[in-house]
Write a structure and sequence with these properties.
This protein has helices spanning about 5-15, 20-25, 25-45, 120-140, 145-150, 175, 190-195, 200-220, and strands at about 85-90, 100-105, 110-115, 180-190. The chain has about 220 residues and is an alpha+beta fold. The chain has one domain (about 5-220): BirA Bifunctional Protein, domain 2 (2-Layer Sandwich), CATH 3.30.930. Strands 1-2-3-4 form a 4-stranded antiparallel β-sheet. Strand 2 (about 100-105) and strand 3 (about 110-115) form a beta hairpin. Helix 1 (about 5-15) packs across helix 3, helix 3 (about 25-45) packs across helix 8 and helix 4 crosses helix 8 (about 200-220).
Length: about 220
Amino acid sequence: MNFTVILKFLKDLARNNNREWFEKNKSRYLESKVHFEEFVANLLHDMITVDESLSGLDPKKLTFRIYRDVRFSKDKRPYKTNMGASLSSSGKKGMGKPGYYLHIEPSNKSFIAAGLYMPMPEELSKVRQEIDYNGDRLKKILNDKKLKTLFGDFWKADALKNIPKGYDKEHPYGEWLKLKSFIITHDLKDADLTDKNFLKNSIKIMKVSKPLNDFLTESIS
């Protein structure tokens, strides 16, 4: 598990994002991929003791492809300049299930995320209903000292401008009702990744976020 190798490859790829360079450096990519998959396997192994819903997952099916889908994008660069893995009860494609995400990108752009990303309308409606009924419980979870220090508040990049129809415009948790994703993030520096205790530290960080995932899981069940 050598993150120095991974970071160096991704940094060079960002400067040479073309097929010719990538093919010449395919062995470096494969080496980086092996290191990352090994880390994800160990991460999953340890996280199962924290969150039993992750049992039975195949670690090799939790990492994302480095090849970009450029068919409908103006950005025609063929490769992602990051590596990512998603751990949820339904694997990396389980967009409707709460889980954990590890994003590796050089220049201090890496992060750990937890929560529920872009749920389908039915699940989104259920979460909003739970916030309406039990917002105080969610507030207590997000105000936990460790969680607040490590993650802060929800990611609001895709939030609605107005409170959804059917809810009081003066709702005490109106800002959460506007959300279309329920994600919290913890930023990582390159030095965090190369620290010998990165695996152990990642587990500690993800463990702190589990009460939020429990709340979201109960909401959509």
